[in-house]
């Protein structure tokens, strides 16, 4: 009886441990990449906490050791096998559970520089990478054994070599936001260190909404609703440009938007055709495609009314959003599946029905070099354009995958191909990619003076949302530092003053003789832009270059007027700089109530 009691305890202990592994397994079934080990807390951040966790090398996690019955515990995809044994055998019940190894405790042995990786402004669905130093603050060499991201959207790399005392290694963290814009991301990466407590790095990013969609959660009317005014109002959606770039509404999926204007505008008001929505199966997701270069896809959710949720929707017809098998294989990352899909495909350049993108487009924009090699070897058209005329090279450049860019160019990709917006791979790389990719494209003859339909050059894109390193490369390549766009007449200095994350871009532009007193269409100078939404450092650089602090814009506002309506931490610094030299602020009744209203 005692033996049976001990067996039962052992069984419960083993069941508890196996249950702990269920969460990552379920996540794998849902398409979410599970972490290899459970997340651990950072003793440096919370030294008093000592959670019970399964160590990385615990037999239940990593070691395929046999049980008392001679079977290997089921893990990962093996757990899905119909022939895999489930649960412990009678023999296993008599075996003592293996000991759980504790996570090392003690003082922290590393320090991150910076302590928090802030990736700054990001674009929805576009990856961005940052570097952090890992400084060894102990008196012994350390080795990082693993870096565990908190979710599948975060990809870390790290130095595999031992880090000596007082020295540092580097880690690169790539964060890819989802399709939703206007949100703040905060992710964690746990670094496991041999013989030492783990360390946790926080990665943050601000996914900018270049075009807003309101509402993004739409309540469908009841099936019995017949009032035309109610039906129209309930399906109203407002799309509005935030960055001042006019755009067109191209189409929706499913095709239920009935009144989109063919003209470019800063604001569109469209309506859902509820009959069309019902005919397509009353699906919850609505995707709206635009020609805005930084917001090509906007998403909203459509909820059925409470009166409609018990009604079984008719089967949805085949959707135009369905993906060709080759694209599905590329997205899976499985070369064998791709080879099989290619063998059965009628056309290696088959396009999806929404974006008109080929499997090579998808491989390039996801940075899957091995997939690109397979497709090119199978005679995929390296210069095929999608619905907007963008090629695989543009997508790889936009995402900053330099290795993919190198391969595509070596395979015959045109570095100066123009898309429907008259952009080229260099423009996309300058704004959304990285300096390494820009440098490569320039070395292969990419034209730095190409201008898109909005009058934007590579330099204007770089000073707006790119990096100072890219700005420096483009200036050296001959880009005009005084060019203005044809929508707002903003110069590179305007954009750098308002949006750039670093004041270095302003410094580089001024060295290239950019005019600090140039005015845009509403009379704003770069100093106005810096006072409105820049930093004190940017302001000082412009003033040192003889920017006029007394200049008034078209509505009679000075730089100090713009500073007074700010509500952030820079407000007091900028007011202190401008008060002695700029005209006194306008009366309160002449000023807007929010900083947003001060934008042109």
Protein model, in words:
- This protein is an alpha+beta fold.
- The chain folds into 3 domains: 110-207, Sandwich (Immunoglobulin-like), CATH 2.60.40; 211-304, no CATH class; 330-579, Serine Threonine Protein Phosphatase 5, Tetratricopeptide repeat (Alpha Horseshoe), CATH 1.25.40.
- Helices cover 29% and strands 17% of the residues.
- The protein has helices spanning 2-29, 90-93, 228-234, 274-279, 325-332, 335-344, 359-365, 369-377, 392-399, 402-410, 425-432, 435-443, 458-465, 468-476, 492-498, 504-511, 526-533, 536-544, 559-564, 571-578; strands at residues 110-113, 116-123, 128-136, 144-149, 154-158, 168-175, 183-193, 196-208, 211-214, 217-219, 236-241, 249-253, 267-271, 285-290, 297-303.
- The strands form 4 sheets. It has a 4-stranded antiparallel sheet with strand order 1-3-6-5, with no helix packed on it.
- Strand 14 (285-290) and strand 15 (297-303) form a beta hairpin.
- Helix 13 runs antiparallel to helix 14 (468-476) and helix 17 (526-533) packs antiparallel against helix 18.
- The termini are far apart.
- Residues 8-95, 310-321 and 588-600 have low confidence and may be disordered.
């Amino acid at each position: 009886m005692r033996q049976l009691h001990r067996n039962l305890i052992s069984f419960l202990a083993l069941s508890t441990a196996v249950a702990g592994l269920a969460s990552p397994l379920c996540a794998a079934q849902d398409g979410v990449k599970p972490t290899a080990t459970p997340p651990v807390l950072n003793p440096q951040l919370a030294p008093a906490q000592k959670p019970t966790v399964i160590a990385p090398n615990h037999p239940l996690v990593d070691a395929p050791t046999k049980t008392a019955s001679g079977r290997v515990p089921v893990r990962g995809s093996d757990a899905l096998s119909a022939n895999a044994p489930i649960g412990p055998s009678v023999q296993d019940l008599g075996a003592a559970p293996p000991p759980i190894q504790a996570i090392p405790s003690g003082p922290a042995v590393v320090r991150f520089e910076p302590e928090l990786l802030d990736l700054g402004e990001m674009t929805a669905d576009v990856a961005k990478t940052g570097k952090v130093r890992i400084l060894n603050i102990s008196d012994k060499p350390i080795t990082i054994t693993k870096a565990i991201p908190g979710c599948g959207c975060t990809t870390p790399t790290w130095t595999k070599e031992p880090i000596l005392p007082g020295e540092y290694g580097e880690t690169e963290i790539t964060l890819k936001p989802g399709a939703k814009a206007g949100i703040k991301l905060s992710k964690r990466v746990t670094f496991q260190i041999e013989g030492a407590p783990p360390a946790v790095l926080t990665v943050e990013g601000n996914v900018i909404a270049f075009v807003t969609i309101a509402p993004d959660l739409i309540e469908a009317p009841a099936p019995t609703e017949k009032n035309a005014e109610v039906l129209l109002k309930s399906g109203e959606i407002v799309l509005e440009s935030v960055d001042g770039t006019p755009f067109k509404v191209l189409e929706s999926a499913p095709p239920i938007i009935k009144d989109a204007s063919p003209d470019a505008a800063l604001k569109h008001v469209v309506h859902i055709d509820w009959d069309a929505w019902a005919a397509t199966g009353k699906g919850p997701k609505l995707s709206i495609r635009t020609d805005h270069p930084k917001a090509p896809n906007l998403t909203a959710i459509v909820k059925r009314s409470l009166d409609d949720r018990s009604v079984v929707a008719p089967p949805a017809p085949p959707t135009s959003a369905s993906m060709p098998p080759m694209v599905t294989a590329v997205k899976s990352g499985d070369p064998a599946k791709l080879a099989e899909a290619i063998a059965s495909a009628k056309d290696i350049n088959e396009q999806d029905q929404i974006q008109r993108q080929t499997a090579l487009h998808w491989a390039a924009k996801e940075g899957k070099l091995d997939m690109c090699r397979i497709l090119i070897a199978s005679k995929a058209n390296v210069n095929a354009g999608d619905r907007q005329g963008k090629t695989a090279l543009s997508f790889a450049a936009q995402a900053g995958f330099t290795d993919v860019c190198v391969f595509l160019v070596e395979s015959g990709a045109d570095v100066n191909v123009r898309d429907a917006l008259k952009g080229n791979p260099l423009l996309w790389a300058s704004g959304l990619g990285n300096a390494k990719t820009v440098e490569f494209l320039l070395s292969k003859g990419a034209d730095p003076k190409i201008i898109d339909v909005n009058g934007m050059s590579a330099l204007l894109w770089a000073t707006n949302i790119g990096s100072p390193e890219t700005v420096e490369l483009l200036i050296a390549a001959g880009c005009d530092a005084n060019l203005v766009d044809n929508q707002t007449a903003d110069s590179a200095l305007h954009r750098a003053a308002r949006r750039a994350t670093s004041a270095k871009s302003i410094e580089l532009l001024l060295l290239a003789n950019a005019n600090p007193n140039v005015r845009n269409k509403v009379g704003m100078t770069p100093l106005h832009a810096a006072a409105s939404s820049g930093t004190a450092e940017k302001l000082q650089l412009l003033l040192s270059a003889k920017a006029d602090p007394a200049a008034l814009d078209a509505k009679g506002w000075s730089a100090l007027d713009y500073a007074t309506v700010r509500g952030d931490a820079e407000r007091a610094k900028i007011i202190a700089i401008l008060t002695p030299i700029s005209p006194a602020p306008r009366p309160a009744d002449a000023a807007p109530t929010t900083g947003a209203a001060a934008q042109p």
